[in-house]
Design brief:
single chain; about 325 residues; mainly beta; 5-stranded mixed β-sheet; 4-stranded antiparallel β-sheet; disordered N terminus
Length: about 325
């Protein structure tokens, strides 16, 4: 992975974008008016550009006046096949890759990627002083802001692919998040899946909770309410909330899309989840105080979300074909 950095001497500020989808994984920042159109050819609304080697689907993060951008580079051009097609094949390449974030890592990838994917799909996260990144099966890495490797941990094989064809390797994509000195990782893979928390200071594993689900590509989200702080994860057979301090499963929900990618979103007192693949792919709203197994008796009863929906923010209600919040 690779990062370009300018000097700074502070931790996170109000204008930072410290993780995948920004603060609280909301995907929005209403603190300042931003342009809605860009034109690389004319330079419209573009302040500067710099070339980035390699191939990556990770997103940039911002801390102070530094932008961290991750990539995986090889001596040979990486083949990327975009477009609408249903081929589940992996890319058969065995060339060494340089995962660069500060100093990074060079190795032959342990797991293949999909033709639309890269070997660097996960977005780094930062608290303003330390930067963590998952390099797929190469592990979890932590750097200080000057580029020194602080610690790294082996997470095991991050073999993410189509659950009905285990040999189809698509590449790991869930991103780490940082909260209250903990690094949270969701590792849903072909076998031995888990959710875990590591100490940001030294990389100690604080807890690890096994998960029984198909491979997913979703990033966890933090939900806080009086008396409860939880990690919410998307899934197919096990969407759920976990206690931040202990990793204990607080609630679970079966069903939905069978190739989960979207990160949970928290707003207006509810947790929103969706996944757009499979027979049943509803949008679901969960109350954050849910407990136990909250799976509906008939998953088909939530399928109406495929119709048009309008969300009235000021009333916190849905108009259209959306079932009521669960639990």
């Amino acid at each position: 992975m690779l990062a370009w950095c300018a000097p700074f001497a502070s931790a996170l500020s109000a204008a930072d974008w410290p993780q995948f989808r920004g603060p609280a994984a909301a995907g929005v920042d209403a603190r300042v008016a931003l342009p809605t159109t860009w034109d690389a050819a004319t330079g419209k609304n573009i302040r500067w550009q710099t070339p980035i080697p390699g191939l990556a689907h990770s997103s940039p993060i911002v801390a102070g006046d530094r932008i961290y951008v991750a990539t995986a580079a090889s001596d040979k051009p990486a083949d990327l096949k975009v477009g609408l097609y249903g081929n589940i094949d992996s890319v058969n390449e065995r060339d060494p890759q340089q995962w660069r974030l500060m100093l990074g890592l060079e190795a032959v990838p342990k797991v293949k990627r999909h033709t639309k994917a890269s070997h660097c799909n996960s977005t780094p996260a930062t608290d303003g002083n330390r930067i963590v990144a998952i390099f797929g099966s190469e592990g979890l890495f932590c750097f200080d802001r000057d580029g020194k490797l602080v610690w790294k941990r082996d997470l095991g094989p991050m073999d993410s692919g189509y659950f009905q064809s285990p040999t189809a390797q698509w590449g790991f994509a869930s991103s780490p998040i940082i909260h209250e000195g903990k690094v949270i990782v969701q590792c849903d893979v072909q076998k031995d899946s888990f959710l875990a928390a590591f100490d940001l200071a030294d990389g100690r594993e604080l807890w690890r909770t096994p998960r029984a689900d198909v491979p997913t590509w979703s990033t966890p989200a933090i939900v806080e309410m009086p008396g409860r702080r939880q990690i919410v994860v998307n899934g197919w057979h096990h969407t759920g909330g976990y206690d931040l301090a202990t990793g204990k499963n607080l609630w679970r929900l079966d069903g939905g899309g069978d190739i989960p990618v979207p990160t949970p979103v928290v707003a207006h007192g509810l947790i929103y989840l969706t996944s757009a693949h499979g027979a049943f792919r509803p949008m679901r709203a969960i109350r954050p105080d849910a407990t136990g197994d909250i799976t509906p008796g008939d998953p088909g009863q939530t399928l109406g979300i495929c119709g048009p929906v309008v969300h009235a923010l000021e009333k916190n209600v849905f108009e259209g074909e959306l079932s009521a919040p669960v639990a």
